Amino acid sequence: QLADAAKLNDLANEVKAGGFSDILLLGMGGSSLCPEVLALTYPQTSGFPRLHILDSTDPAQIRGVEKKIDLAKTLFIVSSKSGSTLEPNIYKQYFFERVQQTLGADKAGSRFIAITDPGSKMQLVAERDRFRHIFYGRPSIGGRYSALSNFGMVPAAAMGLDTGKFLKNTKEMVEACKPATTVEQNPGVMLGLIIGSAAKMGRDKITLITSPGISDLGAWLEQLIAESTGKLGKGIIPVDREALGAPDVYGKDRIFAYLQLASDSDAAQDAKVAALEKAGHPVVRIAVSNTYTLGQEFFRWEIATAVAGSILGINAFNQPDVEASKIVTKQLTSEYESKGSLPPEKPIVEESGIKLFTDEKNAADLAKSAGTGSSADPLKNYLRAHLSRLGAGDYFALLAYVEMNAEHESLLQTLRMAVRDRKRVATCLGFGPRFLHSTGQAYKGGPNSGVFLQITCDDANDLPVPGQRYTFGIVKAAQARGDFQVLADRKRRALRVHLGSDVRAGLTQLTEIIKQVL
């Protein structure tokens, strides 16, 4: 990417002179997670617009993002390697129409940039709609390995990051990881040997600990590790944003990776990590000298993940189970387009405004444990039965198809910590549909050690997708159903909780019930 430094510099100058107040990146997974790390790690550069990310089909979240930007002064970056991914295409349709309404049809294209592989459907759309620029990816680089390509560096340049400095620092790690370097001196290979060997020995959950100043790096690492290694019934399950507990809440299935930013020391965090080490838990410590060396970590972990994959005996560069969910989602949205409704479904329990759904096998297994029939409280009994399936070496994953905001995350984190501390298992939290493009691969294709609680909701205010019969809410519902169907097909232990339109009240109620049954 250093060869393209001049183009990136030209873009930065153009954006700075363009009078933009905001940049909105429209993408998913590998196209959105690196830009998100950059947007949340670096302060806004003087004279440059603020970078926002949209990677959700939740109508409330789309509206929330739109409220943060000035449509007349926003530069939109549509980022999609294949150009055929559902979400970036419908984001583009929505915001292109909104900009046309705001600025007029003749000016809309000048506010859009595409990042895509050559010859993709997105290239054709960008050319037809006269986008301001098209930047190309390299087809040989997979999405989750593309942070240091145009998919990461074009948004970086547009937000005013010194990409020349960033990439020069990264080159040090590239040189250190070259094949000619001895294994002992190769930072990427050594890290891969550690986490791959640990996984083979049963420590197949890696808890990511980051200094506060680089806290969002965990979301990028989570995708890289889960989507690369979780397949063929094997894999490493990344655990991100799980607050550190006392050493005795962890089993012998964990390894900890502590990425410590030199300028951002956290004494309480350091003490907790030291306590883990003292108790005999394996901890990998990685010193990050400053935020401009983050690119070194992108590269180190990409090499490490490929090495870990080879130790596990899997292909770290495909994602077969992600594709399975996409296929089911497409079938469901196509059905909605033709019939005007999704297939009907019947809850196994409906009580206090909460509905429970699952497949036949899970329903039968849960009914045995819940002892329904004579029970006056089936909701609690089913949730208790579901959580009782957790055993040593398992993990618990919350799959929340609700707006990703601080309030919802706080409630879900409380729920997650209650399960972790009572059951002594690793816990994961993913917001849908974004996790479908990251950890979803490991949940479906990795070891069958997950117990899943999917959370869906009614949308208080839905949002139309221009040119389609379906809405964003219908797409989200189809994605949740597709996700669940593939989990069920893979014989995963899964239960879906459906809340009403007051998501905050529903999550509060669910959290209280979970605490009681634990």
Task: Report what the structure shows.
With 518 residues, this protein is an alpha/beta fold. It is 47% helix and 16% strand. It contains 19 helices and 15 strands. It is globular, with a radius of gyration of 23 Å. The relative contact order is 0.13. The model has no long low-confidence stretch (mean pLDDT 96).
Name some characteristics of this structure.
518 residues; 6-stranded mixed beta sheet; 5-stranded parallel beta sheet; 19 helices; 47% helix
Helix content: 40-55%
User: On the 0-100 scale, what is the average pLDDT?
Assistant: 96
Work out the radius of gyration. Answer: 23 Å
What's the total number of strands? 15
Distance between the termini: 51 Å
List low-pLDDT spans.
none
